[in-house]
User: Fold Branched-chain amino acid transport system ATP-binding protein from Streptomyces demainii.
Amino acid sequence: MTEMTTTTTSPVLTATGVTMRFGGLTAVRSVDLDVHPGEIVGLIGPNGAGKTTFFNCLTGLYVPTEGSVAYQGTVLPPKPHLVTQAGIARTFQNIRLFANMTVLENVLVGRHTRTKEGLWSALLRGPGFKRAEAASKARAMELLEFTGLADKADHLSRNLAYGEQRKLEIARALASDPGLLLLDEPTAGMNPQETRATEELVFAIRDMGTAVLVIEHDMRFIFNLCDRVAVLVQGQKLIEGTSDVVQSDERVIAAYLGTPFEGAPGAEEAAEVTAAEAGAAKAGPTDGGATDSGSTEAGATDGGPANPGAAKPGAARNEAQRGTTARTEDGQ
Ligand SMILES: Nc1ncnc2c1ncn2[C@@H]1O[C@H](COP(=O)(O)OP(=O)(O)OP(=O)(O)O)[C@@H](O)[C@H]1O
Assistant:
C-alpha cells in the first residue's frame, strides 16, 4: 500500500463543485465531497442519481463540465492513467477483467502504473517486464493472499465464480498501491455470505491504509461499513453524515420510497389524503362485526399510503435491497 500519514487530517480526495452535463441533462450538479485518510465513505442514491457519473468524473473517464478533483491537495488532470498514477484506483459496476488471462496476470496488469515498463510491456512480456517481474509477482501474490484468491492464481479469470471475479477486480485495483479506492457496487449480485466477506475485505483495505469511497445499493452493507455517507438525488448532494444521521433522515427515506417529505411539493395534499384515509379506517371497522375488527385494524396499518413521518429506515433498506436484486437479475 501507499504509505499514508494517518495523523494528517487533510483529505486524500477533495471534489469541489463537480458538475457533469450531457447536453440538456445535468447528471451531477455542483457536488463537493472530501474523503480523509483512514475513512470509508459511502455514496448512495436512487437509480440514475448520478453516482457512477460522479465516479467517472473523479477518475478522469469524464471531464467534468465544472469543478475540480484533487488528490492529497493536488488537482488532477482528467485523464484516467494520471489519476491512477496519482493514487486513485477503482472497480467498475460491470466486471471488467481480462477473461482469458489468469488471475495472477490480471493483477500484474493492474501493477503497470507502478512499474516503469508500462502496460504493453506487461502484456507482451518484453525484456523490461522480466526484470521487474519478480517483485511485481511477489506483490501480486500478496494481494491474492489478501483477497483470498491465492489458490486460484493460475486459473483463467473467466472460470472464477462471480463473487471471486469481484474480489479479483479489487485485487487488481489494489495492485496500483492506491491511497484511495473507489468501489462501484462491489456486492451487486452477491449472496449474503459473499456480501459479508466483502464487508470484511473493505475494512481490511482501510486498515492497510487505503481510504475507500463506495457506491452501493445494499443499505445494510453501507450503514454497517461507512464512517460517513453522502446521498445523491437527481445529481445533487442531499445530505452527508454518519450512518445514523443519514438513515433516519426523512428526505433520504422519501428519495428511496418515492414518498413526499415535509416541505416537498405535494406534501400537504399527501398529508390530507393520509388523514382522510386514517379517519375512514377508524370509522369502518367499528361498524363492522366484532370478528372483523382485528383484521381491519391490521389492514388500516398496512394498507395506508406511505406516511413520510412513519416510514422507517428499515423500509428504505428493504426497498433499496429489492432494487439491487432486480438490477442483478437484469445482469448488472
Ligand atoms: N454518457 C452519458 N450520456 C448521457 N447521459 C448519461 C451518460 N451517463 C449517464 N447518463 C445519465 O446521467 C444520469 C445519471 O446516471 P448514473 O449512471 O450516473 O446514475 P447512478 O446513480 O449511477 O445510477 P445507478 O444506481 O442506476 O447505477 C442518468 O440519467 C443517466 O441516464
User: Anything to note?
Assistant: The radius of gyration is 23 Å.
